[in-house]
Amino acid sequence: MKKAWWLIPCLTVILALGAVGCAPKGSHSQIVTTIVQQNTGIWVTGQGEVMAVPDIAELRLGVEARADTVSEAQTQASEAMHKVMVALKDNGVAEKDIQTRRFSIYPVTRWIKDRDEEEVTGYRVTNIVIAKIRKVDKAGIIIDAVTKAGGDFTRIQNISFSVDDPIPYYEEARGKAVKDAKNKATQLADSAGVKLGKPTYISEGTAYLPSRVDEFAKGEIAPAPAPPISPGELKVTVSVQVAYEIS
Q: Rounded to an integer, what distance in angstroms lies between the CA atom of residue 37 and that of residue 24?
């Protein structure tokens, strides 16, 4: 088997020639032209970047209650969550912008070494939601409000920032990427002493808009008073690949 590896390139060439030979009459020149075009000209990758100010904040928060029985833990969690939901709505968060992400009930156990077994000591109920805040400057106020509403049952895991409508930023970054590609191709053509022709191929690669996430300490409620929240900026990136003729 080790001596047969050199057959692979030969078989590839034979198969390629065979495919050309079996192609419909008149298509041979098209296949050859396509192969030639893919290996000629000036190929470049352009990148465009635009800074965007976040106008959406997504707060991942909820409540966690622990009690001796499931019923008691669920009652505590439900009462606390109701107060949190009221606080969210009172501070301008629409009901459609609140989505449940996690609801769980787990037994709390401890290991009894003498008996070599686990013992259930209680139950934990967790209810986590994502709240979309459309007024980013109110994020700190809302965090403070839900923390006071839910009390010691409150759990705030993280807050992330994004852009509600990224299309204008993508369009601007895309234009910059194409311009960057042309500048690179022009420099290559000038350095090689050739004349740059028209584009023959354009393909968009990655279009990336990150979401900035700030984590809160695990298992802790947000600090009081209202924490300062700074959304900062997000970098929108678009890349394109362009092929130019050589005139």
A: 21
This prediction has a pTM of 0.67
Looking at CATH, the fold of the domain delimited by 56-164+211-230 is given as Alpha-Beta Plaits (3.30.70)
* Dist CA 154 CA 222 (whole Å): 8
User: Which DSSP string corresponds to the chain?
Assistant: -GGGTTHHHHHHHHHHHHHHHHSPTT-HHHHHHHHHHTTSSEEEEEEEEEEE---EEEEEEEEEEEESSHHHHHHHHHHHHHHHHHHHHHTT--GGGEEEEEEEEEEEEEEETTTTEEEEEEEEEEEEEEEEES-GGGHHHHHHHHHHHHGGGEEEEEEEEE-S--HHHHHHHHHHHHHHHHHHHHHHHHHHT--EEEEEEEEEEEEE---EEEEPPTT-PPPSSPPP-----EEEEEEEEEEEEE-
Q: What is the pLDDT of residues 188-230, one digit of tens each?
A: 999 999 999 999 999 998 777 766 565 655 444 444 555 667 7
pLDDT at 23: 47
CB contact burial 73-86 (16+ within 10 A = b; e otherwise): bbebbeebbebbbe
